[in-house]
Amino acid sequence: MRLTEGDLPGLYLVESPVHADARGSFARAWCRDTFRAAGLDFDPVQANLSTNTARHTLRGLHYQDPPYAEAKLVRCVAGRIWDVAVDLRPGPGYGRWQAVELSAGRANALFLPEGLAHGFLTLTPGAVVLYHMGAPHVPGQARGIRWDDPDLAVAWPAPPEVMSEADRTWPGLAERT
């Protein structure tokens, strides 16, 4: 397992070698020792599974503010997604974003530290996303930013065809409370 820091501080692309033979394949999904060696004290307390029927389903951009902020390890376990992280931490990186394609075939993942919003667009029908969370979801603490906020100008690979009403109506970055 290899962790490579992304363009946003604390954001890591996680690559796991895939070992394949006649039975199928095997790849490590998470390793506490590897994360700690990279200086990341991430101990998941919850795992979430998101199933997405249609191609171009959008989920996000979601986050929880402190004291409920969540670090997360996001992995696509079926299909492919365009995964996006947006920096909401005070400082010069505020509002910057980075995106990466995650796919089941590559067994890659994205680690997001606390303070980043997260969202994705499915690139295939039947995409399934597994999240390992560093803090539990707290009902009533969910927050979001509009996926198409011009202040962010995220380069989505296609317009969404399916999304929730909440994701359609989140405020922009400038209106964030």
Give a summary of the structure in a few sentences:
With 177 residues, the protein is mostly beta strands. It is 6% helix and 40% strand.
How would you write the strand order of the largest sheet?
1-2-10-7-12-5
Question: What is the strand tally?
Answer: 13
Question: In which range does the helix fraction lie?
Answer: under 10%
Overall average pLDDT: 95
Overall 3D geometry?
globular
- Which structural category fits the helices and strands? mainly beta
Low-confidence stretches: none
Give the SSE order as H and E letters. Answer: EEEEHEEEEEEEEEH
For the terminal residues, how far apart are their CA atoms? 37 Å
The portion of residues forming beta strands comes to: 35-45%
The largest sheet is: 6 strands, antiparallel
- How big is the Rg? 16 Å
Q: How many DSSP helices?
A: 2
Describe this structure as you would to a colleague.
- Catalyzes the epimerization of the C3' and C5'positions of dTDP-6-deoxy-D-xylo-4-hexulose, forming dTDP-6-deoxy-L-lyxo-4-hexulose.
- Its EC number is 5.1.3.13.
- It catalyses: dTDP-4-dehydro-6-deoxy-alpha-D-glucose = dTDP-4-dehydro-beta-L-rhamnose.
- This is dTDP-4-dehydrorhamnose 3,5-epimerase.
- With 177 residues, the protein is mainly beta.
- 6% of the residues lie in helices and 40% in strands.
- The longest helix is centred in the first third of the chain and has 6 residues, at 32-37.
- It starts with a strand and ends in an 8-residue tail after the last helix.
- The relative contact order is 0.25.
- The mean pLDDT is 95.
